């Protein structure tokens, strides 16, 4: 059986469709959602836009985290000093 590359691609696409339909059928029969790897993707929804953070927002978050670390370090140092 010799398949051309176009026939092979079509067969692979059909196989993927069959596997997706089998996963959908299994999820319907079991009552649980299909596994995400085999479920058919919803092409009707637009792709979600990636959220980005401004440099100033990253700076504020970093400064707040450094302040939390400093507070924790000071509390730990005070507890060690008090314990001696």
What features would you describe in this structure?
By secondary structure, the protein is an all-alpha fold. It folds into 2 domains: 41 residues; 32 residues. The protein is 65% helix and 0% strand. It is built from 2 helices and no strands. The radius of gyration is 28 Å and the shape is elongated. It starts with a helix and ends with a helix. The model has no long low-confidence stretch (mean pLDDT 84).
Give a short summary of the structure.
The chain has two helices and no strands. With 84 residues, it is an all-alpha fold.
List the helices and strands and how they pair.
Layout: H1 5-30, H2 55-83
Distance between the ends: 83 Å
Counting DSSP E segments of at least 2 residues, the number of strands comes to: 0
* Rg (CA only): 28 Å
The amount of beta strand, in percent, is under 5%
Mean pLDDT: 84
Q: List the helices and strands in order.
A: HH
Please tally the helical runs, counting DSSP H or I stretches of 4 or more residues: 2
Apparent shape: elongated
The profile of the biggest β sheet is: none
